[in-house]
Amino acid sequence: MELKGSCHCEKVKFSFISHTPSPFMRCYCTICRKCQGGGGYAINIMGVKDTLKIDGEEYLKGYRALRDKKTKELCGNMRYFCSECGSHLYAYCEEYADVIYPMACAIDTPLPPVDSKDVYHIMLNKDSKANWAIAPEPNHEKHAFAQYPDVSLEDWHKQNNRFL
């Protein structure tokens, strides 16, 4: 499925192919909350890196978050933002060089809806989730995890017959 996205000021527009366009996973980690979403959680989807086309690339700015502030260990992902309006657009990690991780909120193309019973909540441990964020308790609900889920983005789409 071809998806198109943009930043808020529309100085950066992008498109890519995604086989995993359903926004089903909410991440509550501090990096997603602060660097990506600004709210209680962020939602990434996945796209094929080689199909990424960017208009307004001169406005892109990258940021590599600290995974651990005490040890100063950097996160593997480089997050790309619009330098004008600050909208986070996508992340890229060399370890997974074939894919990008666009923010669902940056996508302008209508995404396939997800039933609330199929939503995954991840990084719900006390060191990640903000105490004010409303989320299920980890391991008390089928799709609530203290850290990482029991399924990848790709596997979830296959299991739910959403792999395009």
Automatic annotation (TrEMBL):
Superkingdom: Eukaryota
Extent of the signal sequence: none
Pfam family, one: GFA
Any GO MF annotation of the entry: metal ion binding
Residue ranges annotated for the CENP-V/GFA domain, each copy included: 3-133
SUPFAM superfamilies: Mss4-like
InterPro entries documented for this protein: CENP-V/GFA, Mss4-like_sf
Keywords: Lyase, Metal-binding, Zinc
Similarity comment: Belongs to the Gfa family.
Protein known as: Mss4-like protein
Source organism of this protein record: Phascolomyces articulosus
